[in-house]
Amino acid sequence: MGQEPNIELEGSDAPRETSGPGVPRRWKPTRPGEINSPSEMRWGGAFGRPGPDTGWALKLIRAADWDRSERPSEAEAVLATLVAARASLFGRAPTIHDVEVGLILMGLRPEDVPPVVAKRLAEERSRWLDISAHEHSKGAAFVGSLDPALLAASPNRIRTLLATS
C-alpha cells in the first residue's frame, strides 16, 4: 500500500533491522524409552517382535481362500496373530506366504497332509479357538506354543514335516 500524502513519516517510523533468532541448540532425546538405534530395540518376551504394517495381514487373510465354517471371526483373529508373528520374525510386513503357513499350522489347508494329521490339526484348532476367547491378544498362546523354527519354515517344509509326523 502506498504512503498517504498527508502523513509525514519520522525516522523512528522507518523499518529497522532486528536481530534474528539465535542458533538452535542441538536436540538430544531425553524421553524415557527413546529408541535411537536398531540395537536399542528390545525383542522377544514381553516386548514381542514388532514388525511393519502387521495390519496388512487382515487384508491378506480376507482375500485368501479357506474354510470359514468354524467360528470365522475367531479363526481370523488367531490367524492374523500367527501371520503377524511370522512376518515380524523376518522383520517385514506380512505376505501371502505367511498366510499360507498360518493356514497350514491351523489345519485349514488339509491338502498334502495325511488325514490323521489333518484331524489332529482340526482338534488343536478347536482347542486354540476356545483358548483365544479368553485372551486379550487373540492367538497369543497359540503363537507362543510354536517353535520359532517351525514358524519360520517355508510352507512346503511345514507340509513335509507334518506328513512325516
Give keywords.
165 residues; mainly alpha; 7 helices; elongated
Structural overview:
It is a single chain. This protein is elongated. It has a domain at 54-164. It contains seven helices and no strands. It is mostly helical and 165 residues long. Helix 1 crosses helix 2 (72-89) and helix 2 (72-89) crosses helix 3.
Q: Sheet bearing the most strands, described? A: none
Helix content: 40-55%
Average pLDDT number? 84
Shape category: elongated
The count of helical stretches stands at: 7
Which class do the helix and strand fractions yield?
A: mainly alpha
Any chance you could write out the topology, listing elements then pairs?
Elements: H1 56-63, H2 72-89, H3 96-105, H4 115-132, H5 140-145, H6 148-152, H7 155-164
Helix pairs in contact: 1-2, 2-3
Short note summarizing the structure:
This protein is an all-alpha fold and 165 residues long.
